[in-house]
Amino acid sequence: MGQLSPPTVAIIGRTGVGKTTQSRRVARRLGTEVIGPCGFEPWVVRHPAWGEVWERGAVLDGVPLCPVQALAIADAGIRLDAVILLVVPAGVVSRRADGGGVDAPRRVDDHATVRAVADWYCTRGKLVVVDGVGSPESVTERILRAMAWPDHEATVIDLRDRARPEVAGSLAEEPSGVTP
């Protein structure tokens, strides 16, 4: 029996939910590389030299940043096996930021942009919602279990369903205490 190639997944979420930490941890566990948002352009990754990267699998750290980029990724023929949405209550994100864990300034548009990207992948059956609260190790395990790697099946969540614990207190709420 042939060996399965690792998946290509994106880890998205609001500023401070732990995307970079989890992208690195998941990539290490899957034996893939991390591709971050700095300099990520779909026209660049369509280059034939990138073909091997996609065949080996990859973890996109905070990419796509907006629905237009999600569409460009799809148009470039980049197959995402899953889009992991890390959800963390706004109060936890604020405590993480206050503790020095977040370098990037929190933005008002962060909430709406992440929600738009999550909605885009939700309608395509690719969105997997994962609770991002807990130790880095426990969150990584949740991500891998949610992916059920190698037998991934996406858990489609309607982000407007405020009654679901995965949504309540995260993307369903407007961010509090966020400054532009």
Layout of SSEs?
Layout: E1 8-12, H1 19-30, E2 33-35, H2 42-45, H3 51-56, E3 58-61, H4 67-75, E4 82-87, H5 90-98, H6 108-122, E5 127-131, H7 136-147
Parallel strand pairs: 1-3, 1-4, 2-3, 4-5
Helix pairs in contact: 1-7
Q: How many whole angstroms does the radius of gyration measure? A: 16 Å
CATH topology: Rossmann fold
Shape verdict: globular
Full CATH superfamily name: P-loop containing nucleotide triphosphate hydrolases
Main sheet: strand order:
2-3-1-4-5
User: What structural class results from the helix and strand content?
Assistant: alpha/beta
Any idea what the CATH architecture is? 3-Layer(aba) Sandwich
Specify the CATH class.
Alpha Beta
Number of domains: 1
Instruction: Give the DSSP E fraction (strand runs of 2 or more residues).
Output: 5-15%
Seen as an oligomer or otherwise, the chain set is: single chain
What is the averaged pLDDT score? 74
Main pleated sheet: 5 strands, parallel
Write structural notes for this entry.
The structure is a single chain. It contains seven helices and five strands. The protein is α/β, with parallel strands linked by helices and 180 residues long. The chain has a single domain, classed as P-loop containing nucleotide triphosphate hydrolases (Rossmann fold, 3-Layer(aba) Sandwich), CATH 3.40.50.300. The protein has a five-stranded parallel β-sheet, sandwiched between helices. Helix 1 crosses helix 7. The longest helix is centred in the middle third of the chain and has 15 residues, at 108-122. It is globular, with a radius of gyration of 16 Å. The model is unreliable at 100-108 and 150-180 (pLDDT under 50).
